[in-house]
Design brief:
Layout lengths: L7 H24 L1 H7 L4 H28 L2 H19 L5 H17 L2 H12 L4 H30 L9 H29 L4 H6 L7 H9 L1 H19 L3 H7 L5 H28 L2 H20 L8 H21 L14 H12 L2 H15 L3 H29 L2 H7 L6
Length: 430
């Protein structure tokens, strides 16, 4: 594995790109969920189906985009993906019909995944070198969280600036005008980041040669499929990602169970986004000093405990402190797993050159919650409105965190502590 030569701003650009590409399709609906439902006249299930169509297109995009990332330089693929995603934002800003919105989410499934996902993971792994994988992925996910949080906050500011009347009395037309400005601000930001990536996301020439293969053969794909780390990571990411999808409803929980208004609920959603950078950065540093695989296992058990707090129904609109503590526990567990699951690829002995292909195969199943979690969450919330529906959703989270914790435990058994022997050999020091 090469020395760790890439500059810091390289990781900074990856962080910016890594969140910006998802701001319009995902961060806006997460922070402004009640507003999106109103201004596009959708219910929870319809919004869930938009995400599902995104997920279905993304599924094929993971598979075919993975090998593409092993063939071409990350910066070109990433920049084009950002520009194409921003163009979709222009359609979004016109508040299209439900049919057009579903098509738009399909288009975004292609631009944000086929051209973007594997190159981002591969470029991050290349930055981390042999001994800084925890930092590379912890900072990537934490930093993405911070960009999302800052944008969420700016979005709320822009939204309230352009809202002509009081939030409670605002008509749908007024909400639309204000929300359109939020979307346009996002488009501008994504376009600019694309330019920066195109010109500045460059690695040392020798490293750039090292991480690209001339062509991908079926033999190489079979080689990746045979690695035990690949199967285990698939299960780990699937379970961790279910947890991540469920954090989408915490702002809705604030509204339905805690009885908060639109702005207060959006603030709960943004608070969550601020937990992510803290967890990612701290864990990234700690994981490199200790054992990344062990922390991955622990993160699932933290999520499990947090999910139980919500599932048992001990949180009500009178227990505000407990509500915030429980949100913190769930988000620490979920974000910890997210920031570490690709960081353990190095331990699992997945060849650097085939990172894109491995990421494609793992993501193919690992990210299927993009398809099924939206409708599943929508179904439980609409069937049993109020607290009961939320309890059912958190019970699902408890089950998945338990399975994920077991898979991570086995990964730890196979690959844990090997990292110490690698770091102690002089060739891989920074």
């Amino acid at each position: 594995m090469h020395q760790h030569k890439a500059p810091w701003y390289y990781l900074l650009l990856l962080i910016l790109a890594g969140e910006c590409v998802f701001i319009i399709p995902f961060v806006l609906p997460r922070v402004f969920r009640p507003t999106v439902l109103d201004t596009f006249s959708l219910d929870n299930v319809q919004l869930g189906f938009c995400f599902s169509i995104y997920g279905m297109v993304a599924l094929f995009s993971y598979l075919f985009g993975g090998p593409l990332a092993d063939r071409f330089l990350p910066r070109k693929l990433i920049a084009v993906a950002l520009w194409m995603t921003a163009l979709g934002g222009l359609v979004y800003a016109s508040f299209p019909s439900y049919t057009s919105l579903r098509m738009l989410y399909g288009y975004w499934g292609f631009t944000t995944i086929f051209l973007f996902w594997a190159p981002m993971i591969k470029a991050t792994r290349a930055w981390g070198g042999a001994s800084a994988q925890g930092k590379a992925f912890g900072f990537l996910d934490g930093g993405r969280g911070l960009v999302g949080a800052i944008f969420g906050t700016l979005g709320i500011v822009v939204f309230s600036l352009f809202l002509s009347s009081e939030i409670v009395a605002a008509s749908i037309a007024e909400s639309r005008v204000a929300f359109r400005y939020v979307i346009l601000a996002a488009i501008g930001m994504v376009m600019v980041v694309g330019m920066l990536v195109w010109f500045f996301l460059k690695l040392d020439g020798t490293i750039e040669k090292e991480i690209i293969v001339e062509k991908i053969s079926t033999a190489q794909i079979k080689e990746v499929l045979r690695l035990p780390a690949v199967l285990l990571l698939t299960i780990i990411i699937l379970c961790a990602y279910v947890g991540y999808k469920i954090t989408d409803i915490l702002s809705l929980y604030a509204q339905d169970v805690m009885l908060y208004d639109q702005i207060e609920s959006a603030q709960v959603g943004t608070l969550l986004l601020y937990a992510r950078p803290v967890v990612g950065v701290l864990l990234g540093v700690i994981a490199d000093l200790t054992d990344t695989t062990m922390w991955l296992m622990i993160s699932f058990f933290i999520t499990f405990f947090g999910a139980l707090l919500f599932a048992t129904g001990i949180i009500s609109n009178s227990t505000t402190a407990l509500f915030f503590i429980s949100i913190l526990i769930v988000s620490i567990g979920v974000y910890a797993a997210r920031s570490l699951y690709f960081a353990v690829m190095e331990n699992g002995q997945i060849p650097m050159k085939l990172t894109g292909t491995a990421v494609g195969i793992i993501s193919l199943i690992g990210y299927t919650p993009d398809i099924f979690m939206g409708p599943v969450i929508g179904y439980f919330l609409d069937q049993s409105p109020g607290e009961v529906g939320h309890q059912q959703v958190f019970s699902i989270l408890a089950v998945f965190s338990l399975i994920g914790g077991m898979a991570a435990g086995y990964y730890y058994k196979l690959f844990g502590f090997k990292v110490q022997t690698q770091v102690s050999s002089p060739s891989s020091r920074l």
